Amino acid sequence: MEHNWALAKDSLSKITVLSNSNNDPVTIVGDADDLKCIGVGTDAAVFQHLNAPAYAFKIYATEKIEKVKIEANIYRILEDSPYFPTCFASFDHTLVLSYEHGITLYDCILQGVHIPKQVIQDVEDAREYVRKKGLNPRDIHLKNILLQNGRAKIIDVSEYSQPGNDFRWEYLKKAYEQYYHLLDGNPVPFWLVETIRKWYNRWGNSISYEEFAKNILQFSKIK
User: Fold this and answer.
1) Which helix (H) or strand (E) element contains residue 171?
2) What's the distance, Cα to Cα, between the start and end of the chain in Å?
3) Average pLDDT, integer, range 118-142
4) Which of 30, 36, 37, 44 would you call most buried, defined as having the most Cβ atoms within 10 angstroms of its Cβ?
5) Domains of the chain and CATH, by start
């Protein structure tokens, strides 16, 4: 790597991340001129340091600090893989990861950027790789998959030690196969994407994919 990630520690210490209820994105408290926020989730925020751009620093919310060691251990089990970032270190509330360029599939949908079939196959292959490592590939959704040179890179592995299937990826894969051709290349309104996301968070595991898709089609008037 071209820079030592330790250059960022002082600036990172000025940032506090707080979680919110209802699965809402975290709140960031503090600021540092040499840090750029490049991602916000429900448990953590991710930053890039101007003097160490090859790294991504994932700062967990104070209430979620136990997840730092859990996720670091998951990366250790996954070892080097083309499907995931590299984890270099962890300290305090922070994971030090390789910075991965690309656009999330969530933003691809919003902007009308084409998502090739290879991305779907890459995620399928990544899930099989995770299972072979004795982990559980769950919580895979549009915001944690990057389109990177026509391939997929999955940027959040934090739930792979948890049991159960949230069916997020299964629903997305079916939707891609059945309906993506209707919107490929066309931007989808933010309000519609967010409505679907919130509906899934509320009902996703309690109704079938077919019923979920039917509700979306009726709501969005897609034929």
Assistant:
1) helix 168-183
2) 49
3) 97
4) 44
5) 5-98 (3.30.200.20), 103-220 (1.10.510)
Count CA atoms within 13 Å of residue 157 on its CB side. 31
Q: Is the pLDDT of residue 206 over 70?
A: no
State whether residue 103 is helix, strand or coil. strand
H helical segments located in 34-148: 66-78, 105-111, 117-132
How confident is the model over 32-60, as pLDDT tens digits?
999 999 999 899 999 999 999 999 999 99
pLDDT band at 6 (very low <50, low <70, confident <90, very high): confident
Pairing of strands 94-98, 87-91: antiparallel
The mean of the pLDDT values for the chain is 89
Instruction: Note whether 20 and 11 are within 8 A (CB).
Output: no
Closest CA to 74 of 65, 60, 85, 64: 85
SS3 46: strand
Per the DSSP assignment, residues forming a β-bridge with 59 are: 45, 94
**What are the structure tokens assigned to 90, written together?**
């962890």
